[in-house]
C-alpha cells in the first residue's frame, strides 16, 4: 500500500524545500499545508512544540526537524541514495547539511530574508538595517569563503547529488527572494554549484509553486496555490493572526 505523507510547511522555507526535494527524488507523493510557522494554530503547536516547520505526518507518526525527516526518508526509501556511500563522505555531507541548517540559516534566513521579507510583510515592522548590512558585508562572505573551500572545481560536492548540494542550494534559493546573488567572480565554485543544483527538474518544479505565492500576502497564498493545482491538504492549521513566539523554520 502506498505511503500517505502530509507536510506542514511553506514552500518558501529552505527547510521545507530540502524535505520536498528529497521526497520528490525518491518518488514519494505528498499533500502539503503550506503555512508559515508564524500563523500556525494550537493544533500546529501540538504537533510542533517548538513551532517550527517542516512537520511530516505519516499515519500516526509525526516527525519534526528537516534533517530528521530527510534521514528517515533515506532509511525508508534508500533508492536513489542522497547520502554518500563512503562513511567519511557521508559524515561530511551531514556536517554540510548541519552547517546550512544552523549557520547559513542564521545569516541568510534570519538576518536577511526574515528582516527584509517576513518582518515587513507579516509583522509590518521595519528591518534592522545594521543587521542586514553586517550579514551582507561580513557574515555571508565569510560563510561563502568556507563553503568555496569545501567544493570541487566542478560537479556536485561528492560526485553524485547529495543532501549537501540540496541543502546549500535550498538556502540560496530563499536568499534570492530578497535579491541576494552569489558573486560568481569571487566564489565561482559556489555560484556554479547553486546554479547547477537549482537547475535540476525537481528544484524547478518546486520553484513553480514558490513563484506562485512569493509576492502575495500570507492570507492569499493558499488560494493561489490551489488555483495553480498544488497538492494541498483539504484543511489548514493556518490562522490570520501571526505570532512570533518560538516560531522559526527548521
Secondary-structure topology with pairs:
Layout: E1 5-8, H1 14-25, E2 30-33, H2 42-47, E3 52-53, E4 55-58, E5 61-64, H3 66-76, H4 87-121, H5 129-150, H6 163-176, H7 188-198, H8 201-213, H9 218-227, E6 248-249
Parallel strand pairs: 1-2, 3-6
Antiparallel strand pairs: 1-4, 4-5
Account of the protein in words:
Helix content is 54%, strand content 8%. The chain has 250 residues and is α/β, with parallel strands linked by helices. It folds into two domains: 5-81 and 211-249, Glutaredoxin, CATH 3.40.30.10; 87-201, Up-down Bundle (Glutathione S-transferase Yfyf (Class Pi), Chain A, domain 2). The strands form two sheets. It has a four-stranded mixed β-sheet, covered by helices on one side. Strands 3-6 form a two-stranded parallel ribbon. Helix 1 links the parallel strand 1 (5-8) and strand 2 (30-33). Helix 1 packs across helix 6 and helix 4 (87-121) packs antiparallel against helix 5. The longest helix has 35 residues, at 87-121. It is globular.
Amino acid at each position: 500500500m502506498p505511503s500517505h505523507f502530509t507536510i506542514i510547511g511553506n514552500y518558501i522555507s529552505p527547510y521545507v524545500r530540502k524535505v520536498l526535494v528529497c521526497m520528490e527524488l525518491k518518488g514519494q507523493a505528498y499533500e502539503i499545508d503550506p503555512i508559515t510557522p508564524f500563523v500556525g494554530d494550537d493544533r500546529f503547536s501540538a504537533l510542533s512544540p517548538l513551532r517550527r516547520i517542516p512537520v511530516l505526518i505519516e499515519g500516526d507518526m509525526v516527525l519534526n526537524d528537516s534533517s530528521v525527516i530527510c534521514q528517515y526518508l533515506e532509511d525508508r526509501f534508500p533508492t536513489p541514495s542522497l547520502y554518500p556511500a563512503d562513511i567519511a563522505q557521508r559524515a561530511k555531507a551531514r556536517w554540510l547539511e548541519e552547517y546550512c541548517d544552523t549557520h547559513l540559516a542564521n545569516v541568510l534566513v534570519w538576518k536577511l530574508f526574515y528582516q527584509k521579507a517576513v518582518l515587513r510583510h507579516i509583522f509590518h515592522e521595519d528591518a534592522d538595517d545594521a543587521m542586514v548590512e553586517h550579514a551582507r558585508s561580513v557574515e555571508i562572505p565569510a560563510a561563502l569563503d568556507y563553503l568555496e573551500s569545501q567544493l570541487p572545481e566542478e560537479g556536485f560536492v561528492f560526485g553524485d547529488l547529495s543532501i549537501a548540494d540540496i541543502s546549500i542550494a535550498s538556502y540560496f534559493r530563499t536568499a534570492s527572494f530578497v535579491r541576494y546573488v552569489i558573486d560568481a567572480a569571487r566564489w565561482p565554485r559556489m555560484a556554479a554549484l547553486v546554479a547547477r543544483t537549482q537547475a535540476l527538474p525537481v528544484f524547478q518544479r518546486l520553484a513553480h509553486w514558490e513563484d506562485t505565492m512569493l509576492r502575495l500576502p500570507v492570507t492569499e497564498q493558499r488560494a493561489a496555490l490551489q488555483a495553480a493545482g498544488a497538492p494541498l491538504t483539504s484543511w489548514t492549521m493556518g490562522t490570520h493572526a501571526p505570532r512570533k513566539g518560538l516560531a522559526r523554520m527548521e
